[in-house]
Amino acid sequence: xxAVQHVTKSWSDMTFIHRRGMxxxxxxxxxxxxxxxxxxxxxxxxxxxxxxxxxxxxxxGDWSQESRRGTDDTQAWRKAIVAAHERKIGTxxxxxxxxxxxxxxxxxxxxPLPSGIVFEAEKPIDPAGASGVYIVYGGSKTCWNxxxxxxxxxxxxxxxxxxxxxxxDARATMFDFNRAATHGTVRxxxxxxxxxxxxIRFESCFFQGAGGGSKQSGDAIRGAKLFQFSIDExxxxxxxxxxxxxxxxxxxxISVRSFLCARSIMLEASGTFGNDNKIDSRFIGGSPxxxxxxxxxxxxNCNSTAIHETYxxxxxxxxxxxxxxLDGYETLVLRPxxxxxxxxxxxxxxxxxxxxxxxITRYEVVHQPI
Length: 370
Known about the structure:
eleven-stranded mixed sheet; 1 helix; 13-stranded mixed sheet; mainly beta
């Protein structure tokens, strides 16, 4: 094990460089780092030509937080999705009725999801998650289990806009695209087995997990072989085991306003997939309520990841194993603010990593396999 430690209040003009086992620091004020790959921005969602509302399909929307009861809207959701596909309708509107919260006891989707649908709240969720349209999932598995494995080709183009998502069980996951959690089996190890899913967008959404400490195994969003997935800077994710877990995904953008999860962002490479992803979230903090595994605010073994101007703060002392774990190559970390220790853990495959102009307190670097 090689350990390098530095302690300072602020490094405003330093570059952190790790290259093939050598760890060093160099002055880099005003340095320009050329891009080695082009990063594509997610394409805008198609303009819907018509819309339907869940009210047409028996939607009730009467979940009560106080009584923790509500009418099951699962069938209303399923019928609306089928109707949108059959009638070639582009947008499904979720009404603001009774409490504004739609309770679903079972999975809304458990298989393929027709491409090109926008799911939009009649009353968008507010930034604190206190008011607006919510989907409350009462099951223990996955609410949106979007499985396109083995279908071939490229599908997707879904947008989720202004919606709140909440799980009631610590084992529950809200979204799983292509069953990312099963990739460890032999048949799923190679992302070539998957159909690619493209242009999945979350805009102004709020995710609230059930917490659960060591029992927490649910995630907010999982995805395998996604291209140009994005979640915008007005979205929030908290109290899940993992906030966003992407496996073998390329050209994805994570701009969440605030994370509070055990492992807020996990980017996992597979074969030649897992490249050119971008993280520019405003705030990432650890959550003791979601700590069933080692806490890393960002865990990344992908290639050519760019981490831009992200604030990472350890809210509970001694909570994090490290703020960032890196085990890929050509990672660029630009102007981060990091408060906590250790700041970094570098895996055995980490190389050609560049950090520019960090502001770091209680700084420690640990370079060792884990």
